[in-house]
Write a structure and sequence with these properties.
The protein is α/β, with parallel strands linked by helices and about 350 residues long. The chain has two domains: about 220 residues, Rossmann fold, CATH 3.40.50; about 60 residues, no CATH class. It is about 40% helix and about 15% strand. It has a six-stranded mixed beta sheet with strand order 6-7-8-3-9-10. The protein has a four-stranded antiparallel beta sheet with strand order 2-1-4-5, covered by helices on one side. A hairpin with a 2-residue loop joins strand 4 and strand 5. Helix 3 packs across helix 4, helix 3 packs parallel to helix 5 and helix 4 packs across helix 5. The longest helix has 18 residues. It is globular, with a radius of gyration of 22 Å.
Length: about 350
């Protein structure tokens, strides 16, 4: 299973420019998480800080117990072996075919024989849907195939954590859907911890177990998808609906006067140019039939049910309504509080069926 990443009070600046401050979150092991935020909020900087490519000024980032902010170079080198990284452009070597691109980390960081390398490379190419394309050069294939090749290369050292920096950038909606399915399928097969940085609303709503959002140089929220998708936090609701109406502006956050003016226009019936309202807890993407169930889904649901009674009533109703009948029965929704989840932890505060249906 993937390892846990614990971030505590992380602060990063470049000179006098503060990028974000006091970021605290936990990436649960074996679950898929997404980090959202308007352009320029430092999402990619956060990825580089997690892997130790950038050193924040304050705070801790514990990767399997090792603080990558303060550890020495040798320990950082060893910790980085836990990671696989998919960069925005795939970061493939243009003069190498796909086979040699994917084999590169194995040749650089291991002493495996070419026979063993070939077995691993072909396995990862098949896993990412690139079987038979190993002799092609990056310039001869589509952007979607380059992304998948970059992902195959990220997988060859069997990472426990996979970081994806805007994997959907430059892809059309169809290729983005295929890549999203691929990430879910990989998680089902290897149970790795995955963190995706994206602007894509559909990816954010359908792929992850957990969602976080950076805004105004701070982490606004981070938690299970059910909590964020049912949140009434203005900036989260605005971003997940792709609306102009809300705190996020074109270049920076809006002042209260501008927000009030836009709200008045909206109340008067002026359309703000956004797409159809898509709020609510939509179904999560499932692994391709024939693959194992994702263990992270049950771990997340156990966590959601433990905190359900702390959420606003509207959020509680939305979460329960989004659950399958089997999950409602399993967690005792409609039964007296105090039922135990599959992990043995006590589930409290569930709503009676008569209340949420009413």
């Amino acid at each position: 299973m993937g390892v846990e990443v614990v971030v505590e009070g992380l602060t990063k600046s470049f000179g006098r420019q503060n990028i974000w401050r006091d970021v605290t979150l936990t990436l649960p092991p074996g679950e898929v998480s997404v980090l959202l935020g308007p352009s320029g909020t430092g999402k990619s900087v956060f990825l580089k800080s997690v892997i130790g490519l950038l050193r924040p000024e304050r705070g801790r980032c514990l990767v399997d117990g090792t603080d990558v902010v303060t550890c020495g170079e040798h320990q950082l080198y060893e910790t980085r072996k836990l990671f696989g990284v998919l960069f925005q452009d795939g970061a493939l070597f243009g003069s190498m075919n796909l086979y040699d691109n994917v084999a590169f980390p194995l040749r650089e960081h291991t002493k495996k024989s070419e026979t063993e390398i070939r077995r691993i490379v072909l396995e990862k190419l098949e896993m990412t849907g690139l079987a038979g394309a190993e002799k092609k050069l990056p310039g001869e294939i589509s952007g979607g195939m380059r992304k998948r090749a970059g992902l195959a290369r990220a997988l060859v050292l069997d990472p426990q954590i996979i970081l994806c920096d805007e994997p959907d950038s430059g892809l059309d909606p169809v290729r983005t859907a295929y890549l999203s399915q691929l990430l879910i399928d990989l998680n089902a097969q290897i149970d790795a911890t995955i963190l995706i940085v994206t602007h894509n609303i559909n990816v954010a709503r359908t792929v992850p177990d957990n969602i976080g959002m950076l805004f105004r140089k701070e982490l606004v929220m981070f938690g299970p998808r059910e909590v964020l998708l049912s949140s009434e936090e203005p900036v989260v609701e605005q971003f997940l609906n792709g609306r102009r109406l809300g705190p996020i502006g074109m270049s920076e956050e809006k002042d209260q006067a501008q927000i009030a003016e836009e709200q008045a226009h909206a109340d008067a019936g002026h359309h703000d140019g956004s797409t159809e309202d898509v709020r609510g807890i939509v179904p999560q993407l499932q692994p391709t039939p024939g693959l194992p169930e994702r263990a992270g889904v049950r771990r997340r649901m156990d966590r959601v049910m433990r905190i359900l009674h702390t959420l606003p009533q509207t959020a509680q109703r939305g979460i329960i309504e989004s659950m399958s009948e089997a999950d409602r029965a399993f967690y005792g929704v409609g039964a007296p509080a105090g039922r135990h989840g599959r992990d043995g932890n006590r589930v409290t505060g569930t709503l009676p069926l008569s209340e949420w249906r009413g």
